[in-house]
DNA sequence: CAATATTTTGCAAAATATCGCAAAATATAG
DNA sequence: CTATATTTTGCGATATTTTGCAAAATATTG
């Protein structure tokens, strides 16, 4: 096996898992730990990953405060993302907003899926960086440094240029009457994305169901599909079914 | 067997597997390892694959990531960035393109500087994340996964909405007659940024001075200031001074 | 601070690369 | 067709690089 091949495998392992260990890698590649150690040091010096004690972590331009938010309820979000994935077909054009469940979906997008993703979220764009087929259109605008996404009039105008197949909506708060969130500009953005997509799919962990926040986005009944981590037969989903929303 | 046939087999083997080794190839083709070695060296020089220790890897597999570029000549780039910093005043609005020297400038921007930075580069936006005062406007468009920056018509239209104070131009190639670069879309973008700024400041490591690339951007004389890591009294900067360009 | 795990360092063996050269193959000229 | 030049190929000797091991140094944990 070529050193180059080893390097590629190490990079792939590191970027897909976020990290990799000497122990695992030296077993997988059938070389000594020292060799892996030297490989990782070399890749580090080239800036392709970061060597740490015990192995390596992937370099990411995405700030840590975002990462922290990301890690809450990660398992539920993965379940939600898997369900959402079944809705995506080849050649579709999709809106992805800055929600963390949506980000999870971006991460598990299969490599053979050929889609165009329009987003205002840096983390989403970053997750799709190594995807071979996904075309990414980034929405311009003023950068919000907290959520690491763009907002404002420019972003809204950008959205209005499209009419996409599906909008994957990261839900902040949902009640039987309204969809709402904690930030005015985020509310404006989410409304615009709903208006410029054929179908809106809400991604939502259970704890956000039946809650309301300051900024109204739109009536809940405008939602087409709602995905949570629970089974669709779970009782509190009934009121939503009555509104004509499909539960997944 | 013709040499051409061997070359074709080597290329096919390399591109289908992503890599190929001398050992395998010399067995498969029933020639000595030296012959394969020479073949691969020739194919490398023609840019059809990349020779590495032990064999060859396919060129498509080697993404020219900015992450890799970022680490070369880092010290020179820091010197350049420090000089560029002296040009920036409070309340100014600036264009930053995706050059690595420009990125270095974004990294060292003092915390008390209150500026608006308009960029198409994710790394630049990311570098400014922790800056308390810098407002960041991100230019939308199609995301290029290699350079991790946006390009295309949308991006150009975004640029045309502004007339900024200074454009910090990451130079790819500069001769006394022309500014040029290796990518058509990058050339378009750089031209647009020049046209929509009052002053253009070129950031350029010495090794790029007096070189030319495929895509013409604009006449060199349109540049207002040129910054390199060398002292301005360095002799080869004279021809540029003659064009009315200030050297820093 | 001791016990343990991890990393660094120097080193020798193995693998790989380079160089010069001569034999073989191919091309060119008369 | 023959003689000569040119290119290609394989071989052996000699660098250079890579690899795994063991001891020493360093970091981590309780």
UniProtKB/TrEMBL annotation, chains A, B:
This is DeoR/GlpR family DNA-binding transcription regulator. Keywords: DNA-binding, Repressor, Transcription, Transcription regulation. Residues 3-58 form the HTH deoR-type domain. One of its GO terms (molecular function) is DNA binding. Gene3D superfamilies: 3.40.50.1360, Winged helix-like DNA-binding domain superfamily/Winged helix DNA-binding domain. PANTHER family: GLYCEROL-3-PHOSPHATE REGULON REPRESSOR, HTH-TYPE TRANSCRIPTIONAL REGULATOR SRLR-RELATED. Signal peptide: none annotated. SMART domains: DeoRC (SM01134), HTH_DEOR (SM00420). It holds the Pfam family DeoRC.
């Amino acid at each position: 096996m070529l050193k180059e091949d080893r390097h590629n495998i190490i990079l792939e392992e590191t970027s897909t898992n976020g990290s990799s260990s000497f122990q695992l890698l030296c077993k997988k590649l059938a070389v000594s730990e020292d060799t892996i150690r030297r490989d990782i040091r070399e890749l580090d010096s080239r800036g392709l990953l970061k060597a740490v004690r015990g192995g390596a972590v992937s370099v990411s331009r995405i700030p840590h405060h975002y990462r922290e938010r990301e890690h809450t309820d990660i398992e539920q979000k993965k379940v939600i993302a898997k369900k959402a994935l079944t809705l995506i077909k080849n050649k579709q054009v999709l809106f992805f907003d800055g929600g963390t469940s949506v980000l999870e979906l971006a991460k598990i997008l299969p490599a053979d899926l050929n889609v165009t993703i329009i987003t205002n979220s840096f983390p989403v764009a970053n997750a799709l960086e190594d995807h071979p087929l996904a075309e990414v259109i980034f929405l311009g605008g003023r950068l919000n440094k907290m959520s690491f996404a763009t907002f404002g009039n420019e972003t809204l105008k950008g959205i209005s240029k499209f009419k996409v197949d599906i909008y994957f909506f990261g839900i902040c708060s949902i009640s039987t009457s309204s969809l709402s969130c904690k930030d005015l500009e985020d509310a404006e953005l989410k409304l615009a994305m709903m208006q410029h997509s054929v179908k809106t799919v809400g991604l939502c962990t259970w704890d956000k169901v039946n809650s309301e926040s300051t900024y109204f986005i739109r009536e809940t009944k405008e939602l087409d599909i709602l995905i949570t981590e629970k089974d669709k037969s779970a009782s509190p989903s009934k009121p939503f079914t009555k509104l004509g929303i499909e539960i997944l």
